[in-house]
Amino acid sequence: MSLDIGEREFVSLLGPSGCGKSTALRIIAGLGDTTSGTITWPGVRDDTTAKSRHEIGFVFQEPTLMPWATVFNNVWLPLRLRGVSRSAARGDVMEALGMVGLEKFADSYPRELSGGMKMRVSIARALITRPKLLLMDEPFAALDEITRFKLNNDLLHLWEKFGWTVIFVTHSVFESVYLSSRIVVMASRPGRVIDELAIDAPYPREEEFRTSSIYNEYCRKTSDALHAAMEGSEHR
Questions:
Q1: β-pairing verdict for 10-14 and 133-137
Q2: CB within 10 Å: which end of the chain, N or C, has fewer?
Q3: How far apart are CA 25 and CA 139, in angstroms?
Q4: pLDDT: is 30 or 66 the higher one?
Q5: Shortest CA distance to 139 belongs to which of 127, 129, 128, 148?
Q6: What's the CA gap between 90 and 75, in Å, rounded?
Q7: Which of 41-55, 81-95, 116-130, 216-230 bottoms out in mean pLDDT, i.e. has the lowest?
Q8: What is the C-alpha to C-alpha distance for residues 170 and 229, in angstroms, rounded to an integer?
Q9: pLDDT class for 43, splitting at 50, 70, 90?
């Protein structure tokens, strides 16, 4: 697998199950080992452990919240693990909760939240360290379509405001086209990049984009590329 990702890009990894999308994220995050090859970061060569892991935020498919802890304490966790006290972290935690619209729920517990709210907490926790790179592994896959659309919009607004680089794993053609500046289509056995599609549509993207002719055309092209990947042949 060979892939270059530029600063402030929003790149989606799209492909069938088992093609290595999630594995790629875990390797980038330092949660898995490579059998060969290297990951190169700006200004650093041959760095498979990734310089400054605090510059990376990871949002998993499940919210992975501590059920016994309040929303505040869940978001505080990454700073707590670095030795930052609760009082010293308060401003950063409330700022992160404000980014996802949950500052009024700081004292709530996960059991009191909807699925969409839990995922917002997970995103806030990933943002608490002010990452430059945000890795997202199918974070909205288990949500209903209405909530998923809303969180897609919220994510784009945050990305435009803060200028992170985002690598987003999804099985959804429609979601990948709506969010991405570039879609990387992968095939399995062996996992590999089979195609790349630039989504040349301006930001900000609102709901009107979902019903536009250019959106439908990009969805068709992406669907064709995904079908080719599933067939195991290279799409041209």
A1: unpaired
A2: C
A3: 13
A4: 66
A5: 148
A6: 10
A7: 41-55
A8: 15
A9: low
Whether the Cβ atoms of residue 173 and residue 226 lie closer than 8 Å to each other: yes
Cα separation, 18 vs 191, in Å, equals 8
Number of H helices and E strands in the chain, helices first, is 8, 6
Strand order in the sheet with 165-170: 56-59, 133-137, 165-170, 10-14, 182-187, 192-198
Which residues lie closer than 8 Å to 130 by C-beta, 6 or more apart?
Answer: none
pLDDT tens column, 145-174: 999 999 999 999 999 999 999 999 999 999
| Complete domains list, the chain, with CATH | 10-64+131-231 (3.40.50.300)
Work out the end-to-end distance of the chain between its first and last CA atoms, rounded to an integer number of angstroms: 18
Other C-beta atoms closer than 10 Å to the C-beta of 21 total 25
